[in-house]
Amino acid sequence: MRRLAATLMLLVALAAPAFAVQPDEMLKDPALEARARHLSEGLRCLVCQNESIDDSNAPLAHDLRVLIRERLKSGDTDKQVIDYLVARYGEFVLLKPRFETRTLVLWLGPFAILLIGIAIVWSKRTRPSSAAGAEAVLSAEEKSRLSRLLKSGS
Q1: What pLDDT score does 19 carry?
Q2: At a CB cut-off of 8 Å and minimum separation 6, what does 96 contact?
Q3: Smallest Cα–Cα separation from 80: which of 92, 89, 68, 91?
Q4: At 82, phi and psi to the nearest 5?
Q5: Span 2-98 CATH architecture
Q6: In 3D, which of 100, 93, 98 has the Cα closest to residue 68?
Q7: pLDDT, tens digit (0-9, with 9 covering 90-100), for 119-136
Q8: Domain limits, the chain
Q9: What is the distance between the alpha carbons of residues 76 and 154, in angstroms, rounded to a whole number?
Q10: In this structure, are residues 35 and 78 in contact, taking their beta carbons and an 8 Å threshold?
């Protein structure tokens, strides 16, 4: 019984984002509505932060969805709508940041860290171990003393 209840609760929680866009928000023109949905899928909910405004039930997400539809009805292009929202809320509103000079670290940082890690592992594997290097610098007298100490200890 508990398992069934947990499964039902999980299904309801997963289905909740499907109901984020309310019928009263939707535009009558299917082409404009499709553009609005496409734009809102790429914009971050500033309250939820890891959800798009298309999936969020937050009041701010609702306001942003309505704002997008109003701007599209007034004749703005997709780029103008995005630029307006970025000017108003900053680059953080974009789920996928733009590839620009100031966002190079976001785009190239993971690859740089990966290359640095590979270089460190490669240098550790190709460098002779310190134990082999220490044995090579022992003099004949030191080697004989070491062997006597090892024999006496066992």
Answers
A1: 46
A2: 42
A3: 68
A4: -65, -45
A5: Orthogonal Bundle (1.10)
A6: 93
A7: 999 988 887 665 555 556
A8: 2-98, 102-153
A9: 87
A10: yes
